[in-house]
């Protein structure tokens, strides 16, 4: 997975804390635009409070999320270091092979 994908995934998790479908069903444009009395307003408030109680957020998931993000960041740093080491070794190999091929070519010319 790349970094952009994981950032998008983390933002999506944060958005999922509130169920937009339930909220949209309760707070439709028609419901919000129609004039309502005190009784209707209290019903909407009661409905929203009931939905809020149903959510039961798991607060342990926040600490777990932070732990996983820090672990992910550590692994990304480790991957970047290893990738840099690999690139350096590959560059050294390419330089060596260029020199080796040049010497090999000169030896072939000398012994022919």
UniProtKB/TrEMBL annotation:
Keywords: ATP-binding, Coiled coil, Nucleotide-binding, Nucleus. One of its GO terms (biological process) is mitotic chromosome condensation. The keyword Aminoacyl-tRNA synthetase does not apply. One of its GO terms (cellular component) is condensin complex. GO terms for molecular function: ATP binding. The keyword Ion transport does not apply. Residues 62-92 form a coiled coil. This is Structural maintenance of chromosomes protein 4. It comes from Quercus suber.
């Amino acid at each position: 997975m790349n970094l952009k994908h994981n950032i998008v995934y983390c933002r999506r998790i944060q958005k999922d804390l509130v169920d937009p479908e339930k909220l949209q069903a309760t707070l439709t444009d028609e419901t919000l635009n129609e004039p309502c009395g005190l009784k209707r307003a209290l019903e909407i408030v009661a409905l929203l409070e009931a939905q809020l109680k149903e959510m039961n957020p798991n607060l342990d998931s926040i600490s777990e999320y932070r732990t996983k993000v820090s672990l992910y960041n550590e692994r990304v740093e480790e991957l970047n270091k290893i990738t840099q080491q690999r690139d350096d070794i590959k560059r050294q190999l390419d330089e060596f092979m260029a020199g080796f091929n040049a010497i090999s070519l000169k030896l072939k010319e000398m012994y022919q």
